[in-house]
Write a structure and sequence with these properties.
324 residues, mainly alpha, two-stranded parallel ribbon, 11 helices, DUF3644, EC042_2821
Length: 324
């Protein structure tokens, strides 16, 4: 079969998978819609991007086994080589959901992933037009591209009360991870927030719902003391912290360089951060690191104070070297 003909078939199947994902997500009677949508949308992207590679004359098969095609992650890497590209980050987060949703099924994943899903749907239409000159609105009405999200705000405390510790920790970690990545990539190519605005009005007849501080009203409201959220105090993953340190080095115009085995390098790497972490035992200091326990595994997120500390130590080391 010619590559062009195969690419056309892949695009056709991709569009069908995309529409099935929309139908699953927007049907209120389906409770498995988060997992179902993630399966269909990732399949749609995989087929569409493989068609793009074929049209570019790039093989989609393993070198030593033409019976197997590349995985979605491998295809994403080929088409979107920039690791920091918001669309690539968006896709990779949804792929993680697809890969793990069968093991950690919760109704509240929608509160975490709905903004990613909405951004992803619009990006699919844009990339389909860009790579294959096909308008997705020829296959589904424009208004169907707006997802019907039935989510409500969810606090860490509510998650911990509702789920077993392993599931709660995982959901909290993913929520914080996506929130942090979104803060570092404030673009609709990563997330499109679904926001509900509440206004206090004087006329009860004009209100959509009522709340109560006294005995009247439908919904009780009270002032609470909120614990610190790691997404606010420790917002960086390991790689995000590397990028933040490098950004500060450049912004402060620090002449940073070191001799590796092969050459003189001027970039702050993940390996260097690990050396700093181990030498100063930063993970043991809550000011710098927050430990997330998920089942039998542990993950860490890091604070701005960690970035400031590493940069300050680099400055001190540089001053010492200049005196020698």
């Amino acid at each position: 079969m010619e590559n062009r003909e195969l690419a056309e078939q892949l695009v056709s199947k991709s569009i069908e998978a995309f529409i099935m994902g929309l139908e699953v997500y927007n049907k209120p009677t389906i409770r498995y819609r988060i997992e179902g949508f993630s399966f269909f949308i990732t399949n749609a992207w995989e087929l569409m991007l493989k068609a793009k590679l074929l049209n570019d004359g790039v093989s989609i098969y393993f070198k030593n086994n033409h019976d197997r095609t590349l995985s979605l992650n491998e295809v994403i890497t080929k088409v979107f080589p920039d690791k920091k590209q918001p669309l690539r980050l968006n896709l990779e987060k949804i792929v993680v959901l697809r890969n793990t949703s069968t093991h950690f099924i919760t109704e509240d994943y929608e509160t975490v992933y709905a903004p990613l899903f909405q951004s992803n749907v619009l990006s699919f239409g844009e990339q389909l037009q860009r790579f294959h000159q096909h308008d997705i609105t020829q296959d589904t009405p424009q208004n169907f591209l707006t997802l019907s999200a039935t989510m409500a705000p969810l606090t860490d405390e509510q998650i911990e009360l509702k789920y077993a510790p392993e599931i709660a920790e995982r959901l909290i970690f993913q929520k914080d991870d996506i929130a942090t990545t979104s803060a570092l990539n404030p673009t609709d190519k990563f997330t499109i927030d679904i926001v509900h605005y509440l206004y206090q009005v004087k006329g009860k007849d004009t209100a959509d719902f009522t709340f109560k501080i006294a005995a009247e009203g439908e919904v009780p409201v009270k002032t609470i003391t909120r614990r610190k959220n790691p997404a606010e105090t420790h917002m960086y993953s390991h790689n995000d912290l590397v990028n933040e340190i490098m950004r500060r080095i450049r912004k402060q115009k620090i002449n940073f360089e070191y001799q590796s085995k092969e050459r003189i390098r001027r970039d702050f790497t993940s390996s260097l951060l690990t050396l700093f972490m181990n030498f100063y035992d930063m993970k043991a200091d809550g000011k710098y690191a927050f430990k997330h326990v998920i089942g039998n595994s542990e993950r860490y997120s890091y604070s701005q104070a960690a970035a400031e500390f590493v940069v300050s130590e680099i400055k001190k080391i540089r001053k010492i070297l200049l005196r020698i």
